[in-house]
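FW: tagging you since you asked about this chain on Friday. Here's the raw sequence from the shared folder, copied in full. Didn't touch anything.
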Amino acid sequence: MDGKTLKAGSIAGVTTIRNPILAARAVMERSEHVMMIGRGAEGFAKEIGLQIVDPSYFYTPERWNGLQKALAEDSVKAVLDHGNKSSELKGTVNKDNKFGTVGAVALDQAGNLAAATSTGGMTNKKYGRVGDAPLIGAGTYANNATAGISCTGWGEFFIRSVVAYDISAMMEYQKLSLQEAAAKALAKMEKLGGDGGLVALDNKGNVTMPFNTAGMYRGTVTADGQIDVNIYR
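HL: got it, structure written out here
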């Protein structure tokens, strides 16, 4: 999403586009749409010259073995107990079953913000499930007037809480700081029973990266090249 123009692009349910994030950007920049899915998105990507690969390109032994383990343990044990979070949904109690979301937010020297999020989704997800990453306002949002936000975690709750846009809205309408708005949005999502985190950057260069899990891979880089990387609190 482009914070200057509020243009956005996303894709979902694709299996043959080598770099899905490039396709999402192309939807934003080279189509009249915001979101494309499945075969249509793949056809668009091929039409504009993005690299198309056989799904076997994405195979890794680690992720295959993780899926087999999830299938063996699971066969649909998605017990969504929102009250006490005793969920057996893969990717929540088993931290090794969900990783791989990559999100980035950036501020350029002209004051423009941008945000992007890409993920393989939840291990052993069902029936064409789509998470929060490609849903503008849920997992990804950018507005020059407020902030750029990219989320990761239990997508269903980020969707229901519209976390990314919620942060921007609280900054715009309640005049909250980036840190205050992000903390409130994450708390609202957690109250519903979800978990995860986000990276956010406002138009003044302030950064916040809150999460309610044991850890979240995260890092920052400043204009002068100073890099800071963290996993746990």
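FW: The radius of gyration is 18 Å.
HL: agreed, and The chain is about 30% helix and 20% strand.
FW: great, closing this out.
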